Write the structure tokens for this entry.
Amino acid sequence: MSGTGTVKPEQTQDNGEKIKTTSEEDIEKKLYESLKKHELPDYLLYTGTGGAKNWLKLDESETFPVARQLKVLLEKNIASIVRFIPTGMSLVSVGVGSGDKERVLLEELIKKNLAEKPASGKVSMRYYPIDISSQLVDVALEKVRDLPLERMGVVGFIEEMPLLKKHWRLPVLFCILGNTFCNYEPEFILQLVYENLEQGDLFFFDANLLPTQGSGEEAQSARKSVLGTYASRENALFNMYPLLQYGMDPDDFDFELLLGHVDSRIGAVYRTRKSLNILKDSKIKIGPETINFREGDIIRMGFTYKYTYNQIIDLLDICGFDVLNSFLSEDRTNAMILAKKRI
Ligand SMILES: C[S@@+](CC[C@H](N)C(=O)[O-])C[C@H]1O[C@@H](n2cnc3c(N)ncnc32)[C@H](O)[C@@H]1O
């Protein structure tokens, strides 16, 4: 993944600065290049003219409660989480989305900073909301407009963490929230985070889980619920949007979602597999370029891993992280983990 490397700070109406490490034109070019190879990676669902709005709408829909349930878990445990976070850390959140969860964290961290440094009466907290969608960075900045913070939004790819980290002040609480962790190959994302965090930094992420492995009745019903969520009409529309936006007809293709097993260092893990299957010869126009599809073509999309809690803990251990604290919902379907890289 490579951005343009152009870094232009931009003032956003009183909300702080925003730096763009990639532009809308770059993203549209990536959409064209990906579709030419019959691929549609997930980040392209959140970008473009409607991407941010589509995500915010999906996040509110009854059939897609994944990120919302994780916010409930965060709110329930916020006091204990913040107890483990030293004062004076910057909050960096990649794939920030609406920034709702970050607001919950920031309010509590500011309270803690004030309580520990009452003499100065001032809190010097920094917040860096980062996302591939420029509109979502604006939403996240706006969400904390009234908080006493220094803030700088960054539009960029998590894959470019070495470039992103040049903008933040250490030490950081590095967050990946809203189940975004599960959209990456586990060893890729954990290695990326490991290599780019410094000794005093902390790593905080959440995940929507499978409560149990195996083939019993409980496991069957958990599989069904995963399929129900990801194959819902609302989620299907979210995944189909880029093709519709660039002129394809809903009858030209359909959305398919499968749930399979993949082997890994932590044993067999469930992973969704998504595709858009072309039903008719059709074409899409992106700027001056046209891509022709033939009936039977398959456009491969992103995936979501469905781990059990123990699998995530094993992964962290293998990849060199110590767990400082973890929070698991009663039904074992949602977890939040605060970790530190083992030095
Ligand atoms: C599942 S949403 C979660 C949003 C938010 N954290 C929440 O909890 O509601 C994933 C977010 O990651 C962003 N995103 C996707 N791919 C990304 C990438 N490669 N780099 C940075 N952000 C990315 C999307 O734009 C979106 O806001």
